[in-house]
DNA sequence: CTAAACGTTGACCCCGGGGTCAAGGTCAAG
DNA sequence: CTTGACCTTGACCCCGGGGTCAACGTTTAG
């Protein structure tokens, strides 16, 4: 299949596929006229790339998944080589969450000082509901 | 005082101050030779701008704070005009946190499938400790 | 034959908050 | 006069993930 067909099958755009290739995530064959040619398994591969991107991994990060990028990573096992990458990203996410929690507290505080006590109280600690 | 002095006093850079001005957050006088001239109160103003930026507000958002940007917003009341801006930003932060929580769960899950069970368990639910 | 619908590469645009030159004006001290 | 520290505006660079042209080649249908 050619790039347009793959883009359609994978629910993305031609531009994105060329970008993934530029980032070293895809290596399509070329027909004599220069067109990119993809096999059907590349649909899964592209889906995996997009899944990992949605998790906040960068294109560079995803290169660590190359050995298992053709597998069904949403369900099955992920290649061990990527564990370090995931762990690092996880740490970043934890940091981001902690920072946002701090920010949240300060915003609620500022809201209270803005004379919007009702509004502030409504937002007081909504996240507590998720654990208690 | 001139821009270099203010930058030093406010703990930031000349470039940043010019950027804030470009964004409409500062309006210094000009000396006959074109140099920017700032009063001492502008130090607080710049500190406020930087505080709000650190909370994730954008330069555009901060324009809503113009009426109270000279006050001591870290301690005293914030001008009511900015309440809506803060509330909106708060909603965004809540969304971000929720999204990151989801991402976190998926990352831990992926980590487990990567054969790094110990690592995954270590990260299992560290945020639960903050509420329980 | 021709037009449409594909494909190709290359290059500029976006966002946010500035960093980092470049090229030049101004002012005090030596 | 000269040096050096300060100031000015303008313009390009960064990151990530592409969007959106431009200018051109190829294939397919009528």
Automatic annotation (TrEMBL), chains A, B:
Coiled-coil annotated residue ranges, if any: none
InterPro entries on file: DNA-bd_dom_put_sf, MerR-type_HTH_dom, MerR_fam
Domain HTH merR-type: 1-68
Keyword line: DNA-binding
UniProt keyword DNA-binding, yes or no: yes
Membrane-crossing segments per the record: none
GO molecular function terms attached to this record: DNA binding; DNA-binding transcription factor activity
Domain of life from the UniProt record: Bacteria
Protein name: MerR family transcriptional regulator
Organism of this sequence: Streptomyces radicis
